[in-house]
Amino acid sequence: MELRELREIEGYEKYLKVKPLYWDHERREFVWLDTRLLPFKEVYRRTRDYRRVAEAIKSMEIRGAPAIGVSAAFGMTLAALESRARSVEELLRDLSEAKSVLASTRPTAYNLFWALDRVYRSAQEASGKGDPEEVRLGVLREALRIYVEDIRNNVEIGRIGSKLIEDGQTILTHCNTGALATAGFGTALGVIRYAWYEGKRIKVITTETRPVLQGARLNVWELTKEGIPFKLIVDSAVGYIMSRGMVDLAIVGADRIILTGHTANKIGTYMVALAASHNNKPFYVAAPTSTIQATRSVEEIEIEERSQDEVKTVMGQKITLDTVEALNPSFDITPPELITGIITEKGIARKPYEKSLQEMITEP
Ligand code: MRU
Fold first, then answer.
1. Measuring CA to CA, which of 64, 228, 247, 301 is 20 to 30 A from 166?
2. 3-state helix/strand/coil string of the chain
3. How far is the CA of 338 from the centre of ligand 1 (A)?
4. What is the CATH architecture of 158-362?
């Protein structure tokens, strides 16, 4: 079937040097690059089963808040296509179950809940005519829209954020926020990518990002592909590197931002922000407005606690005693006073964030 959404996606192909995930419309399958195997192996996986999408998110084959949200939307599409429901009521029940399974994968990434709600709402809206086929089509179209919007928003974040970067500057980043963390192009790494495409002679310093090594594995892979000069550092070098004047600004992504400006992002982000503040360096967050939760309550941010094994091993190798107890919070929360600005596809939010972020999510 000819879908307008599919044609729209074609317009963005030029930004997809790396295609981390996509919908194979002919085979009706969802396809993704298994980021666990990078940078050593580039393996694409595909499925027609939404439970497999949930498993891929949980095991971090797919990771990064926007990528998680977009994948969950396609998970819902697969659930709608898989379902044998003959009535819209039955189909909505099946979709509601798929929504719960997908929602239980990663608790911090707000884009996950945002995308699931959006797709489910589109199913409810399409159910009006009483035809399950209309609902299936409605869900597919909404997932495709979420996919293309994410790429478009990232390019826009890149364009807006790049204005903050001057020729010759060195940018520090933490965790992977590139194409691999989104539907394509990236957020914080998208800003860096855009500045590079504009011809700015920038340099990047990326942390390794223990314990899952999104910096050492994924940033290294993306930056190498682009030819952007970079250096890799251990996470604990951030303070020293900043104190020696080796960084001009820091840009990171976000898993969840609330209206107060509190930003949940990969564990270690808070320390980067503290080091930047102490050394009078700008610290920016880059994220689409789909990462913003309309709440003022920090307590609503659930911080994912992952397996102790991630801390007790490096790339599958034990680095401590089996008897050791480890703590493994996957994210931390950076308070708004440490954030210079939040770059979204709608512009740069500045303090007071309550006002600027609220305006961004209520604007049409
Ligand atoms: O645990 P991950 O790899 O999913 O964590 C990813 C991050 O913390 C990213 O910085 C965030 O999701 C933004 S990705 C554009």
1. 64
2. CCCHHHHHHHCCHHHCCCCCEEEECCCCEEEEECHHHCCCCCCEEEECCHHHHHHHHHCCCCCCHHHHHHHHHHHHHHHHHHCCCCCHHHHHHHHHHHHHHHHCCCCCCHHHHHHHHHHHHHHHHHHHHCCHHHHHHHHHHHHHHHHHHHHHHHHHHHHHHHCCCCCCCEEEECCCCEHHHCCCCECHHHHHHHHHHCCCCCEEEEECCCCCCHHHHHHHHHHHHHCCCEEEECHHHHHHHHHCCCCCEEEECCCEEECCCCEEEECCHHHHHHHHHHCCCCEEEECCHHHEECCCCHHHCCCCECCCHHHHEECCEECCCCCCCCCCECEEEECHHHCCEEEECCEEECCCHHHHHHHHHHCC
3. 19
4. 3-Layer(aba) Sandwich (3.40)
Catalytic residue among 49, 255, 309, 332: 255
pLDDT at 363: 63
Query: CATH says 2-155 is which class?
Result: mainly alpha
Ligand 1 pocket check for 253: Cβ under 6 Å: yes
Residue 246 has pLDDT above 90, yes or no: yes
Mean pLDDT on 113-123? 98
Q: Check if 177 has its Cβ closer than 6 Å to any atom of ligand 1.
A: yes
**CB of 206 closer than 6 A to ligand 1?**
no
Give the pLDDT confidence of 28-50 residue by residue, as tens digits.
999 999 999 999 999 999 999 99
Q: Is 255 a catalytic residue?
A: yes
